[in-house]
From TrEMBL:
<keyword id="KW-0732">Signal</keyword>
<keyword id="KW-0433">Leucine-rich repeat</keyword>
<dbReference type="InterPro" id="IPR050333">
    <property type="entry name" value="SLRP"/>
</dbReference>
<keyword id="KW-0677">Repeat</keyword>
<dbReference type="GO" id="GO:0005615">
    <property type="term" value="C:extracellular space"/>
</dbReference>
<feature type="signal peptide">
    <location>
        <begin position="1"/>
        <end position="26"/>
    </location>
</feature>
<dbReference type="InterPro" id="IPR032675">
    <property type="entry name" value="LRR_dom_sf"/>
</dbReference>
<dbReference type="InterPro" id="IPR003591">
    <property type="entry name" value="Leu-rich_rpt_typical-subtyp"/>
</dbReference>
<protein>
    <recommendedName>
        <fullName>Leucine rich immune protein (Coil-less)</fullName>
    </recommendedName>
</protein>
Length: 319
């Protein structure tokens, strides 16, 4: 298929038997999406379309990506390569690329990556969003530095451990290890003091203490659901000061102490555990929402008013 030199601002090609596409020089095309095609590589003629701001190759058969193919794309902000067959991502450029100063989002989810050198992305100072979700990654780069990255998604991979002690990503605010094989929290997680959302849901954690997150005072949401937790200790002065929601649902907890919660307002999600004993009267007033459905006992309340009006029935739950 040959794309003519026409005044196009957006080009969308869906559900084709496309094996090959030739892009002639075009100064107007800013959005290119090719989906459900049989392309096995990024077309080399992509270099002829330098006005691109958003590029998507999804549900194709691309196996290897060389970021050097986009080297001169000085306007490219978002590169979406999700749902391909990508096993390798490299950058063979031997000079400074204009792309380095423009790219902000790189999406590589649902591919076949088993490892990736994160240091490759240090050359992209504007990159703020990186998703590697749903690959087969088993190891992480031990040393990694990036000053702009705000969101890293490593969910649905094969990580058994995550050593982040030699990472320097000071602006990181959202980090996901959802559905890996971790048995402990990532090492040195507390160095990321700008984190607002942390997900370690769907792993193999057996015990948790809120003190392991001491110093993460911007953390607002903590996802620990779908682990194997039999113990969760939340009563401590070393509590993230801005934490608003903690999700402990779908674990193996039989009891939990919420008597001392030193934050202004906390939503605690405990659905689908095995909690048989719970002292509502000794629960901190700072617990403003409690969700306990699908436990042997259910003391759920949605608002402080509901709790204060004694509308909470801590009866046995019909699971």
């Amino acid at each position: 298929m040959k794309v003519p030199n026409a005044i196009l601002h957006s080009l969308l090609i869906l559900s084709t038997r496309l094996h090959f596409i030739s892009l002639v020089e075009n100064q107007s095309l800013s959005d290119l999406t090719i989906s459900s095609a049989k392309l096995t590589r990024v077309p080399p003629t992509i270099k002829n379309v330098l006005a691109l701001r958003n590029v998507t190759f999804m549900i194709c058969k691309i196996r290897t990506v060389d970021l050097a193919d986009f080297c001169d794309h000085s306007l490219l902000v978002k590169l979406d390569l999700n749902s391909n067959h990508i096993r390798y991502v490299v950058n063979t450029a031997t000079r400074h690329c204009s792309l380095y100063d423009s790219l902000k989002s790189l999406l590589l989810y649902s591919n076949l990556l088993t490892t990736i050198n994160l240091n490759m992305f240090s050359a992209f100072p504007q990159l703020s969003y990186l998703t590697l979700r749903n690959n087969k990654i088993k190891t992480l780069t031990h040393t990694f530095g990036h000053s702009a990255l705000e969101n890293i998604n490593l969910g649905i991979n094969g990580l058994e451990e995550a050593n982040l002690c030699d990472w320097s990503v000071p602006n990181l605010s959202r980090l996901s290890f959802r559905r890996n094989q971790l048995t402990n929290l990532p090492s040195c997680i507390t160095i990321f003091t700008n984190l607002t959302v942390l997900s370690v849901a769907g792993n193999g954690l057996a015990n948790f203490s809120i003190e392991s997150l001491a110093g993460l005072d911007k953390l607002q949401e903590l996802e620990l659901e779908m682990n194997s937790l039999t113990s969760a200790v939340l009563t401590s002065d070393l509590f993230p000061k801005d934490l608003q929601t903690i999700d402990l649902s779908m674990n193996n907890l039989t009891e939990i102490d919420l008597s001392y919660i030193p934050v202004h307002s906390l939503r605690v999600i405990l659905q689908s555990n095995a909690i048989e004993r719970f002292d509502l009267n000794n629960t901190s007033p700072n617990v403003t929402t409690l969700e306990m459905a699908y436990n042997p006992i259910d003391c759920s309340f949605s608002t402080p008013l509901e709790r204060a009006m004694k509308h909470v029935d801590c009866g046995k739950n019909r699971i």
